[in-house]
Amino acid sequence: MFGRSRFLSFPTVIGAVVIGVVSGKAIFGPPLDEYWKKKLEEDAAAKGTDSSSS
Asked: Is the pTM value of this prediction over 0.90?
């Protein structure tokens, strides 16, 4: 389909990585933040019940 006679240039790869990271944070950032917030709260609650029961 595309004729590639040489490797991708370094600036092209860096640009693609930056675009991927920025778009990934925009898409998955808020749900991940919410997930980790709930996870930390659950862990803190479980740790609190474990230490109080012993």
From this structure: no
